[in-house]
Request: fold
Amino acid sequence: MRFAILVAHYLGDVLARHPAPGRRALDLACGTGTLALMLADEGWDVLGVDGSQAMLALARAKAAALETAGRASFALGDMRSFALGPQAAPGLRPSSYHLATCTYDSLNYLLREEELAACFANVAHALAPGGLFFADMNTRHFLEHDWDPVIVDESEGFVQISQSDFDPASACSTMVVTGFAGDDVRGYQRFEETHVERAYPPETVARLLEQAGLAVEAAYDCFTHQPPYEASQRIAWIARKP
Ligand SMILES: C[S@@+](CC[C@H](N)C(=O)[O-])C[C@H]1O[C@@H](n2cnc3c(N)ncnc32)[C@H](O)[C@@H]1O
Reply:
């Protein structure tokens, strides 16, 4: 949630430098919809797509409780096939979005190069001519050196422990999250999730974007307008459909 708010502010700065040709947006891997709803609040007409029904249910509940200047709707879809083929997300219109976003390292969840290529091809298919793609990705430096091996989060009625392990051969980091949530009346439920993220060399990301027909306009050390450097933790990619 806090990250999505940071990204929304940064995206505003990025759009001032790299304008989008209209106000129709597609937020891929939208999660609980925070960015999509912030864009809708600024007057964008947004379709949020995610592969998880549970995330979409939370996004729709948030949308129902808010009044936004623009419109936000949400659809089930896989980043690798949301625009092309029989699994196209409901409501998606090809060649019609002026902005596509994919944030909070969601692209790192694609573990094979072909999956990243498929996602970029779908983005290119969905964007209108002149449309902008904005995505952030964790770097190998971050996954290998800066992602704390153990993180403990605790708040009222909630505790979770995240343990990460980086495999240099696959450039993948596996995070196992275990925790308890609840209260003294209803009791506490144990939960466990596993997240795997893969880091891609920047040259590979740039090549796959170009191969998908998206012209790379900039790669920034995320949250700045400087080029990435050796110890960058996250890269913001900005590419445009010609
Ligand atoms: C780290 S969350 C980011 C959510 C949101 N973008 C944000 O900033 O809060 C990653 C999201 O990617 C979604 N996701 C992972 N793999 C996906 C796929 N192949 N297709 C669509 N969504 C996917 C998950 O369901 C989850 O909502």
User: Anything to note?
Assistant: The chain has a mean pLDDT of 95. Residues 3-4, 29-31, 34-35, 50-52, 55, 78-80, 103-106, 109 surround S-adenosylmethionine (CB under 6 Å). The domain at 2-139+199-240 is CATH 3.40.50.150 (Rossmann fold). The longest strand covers residues 127-138.
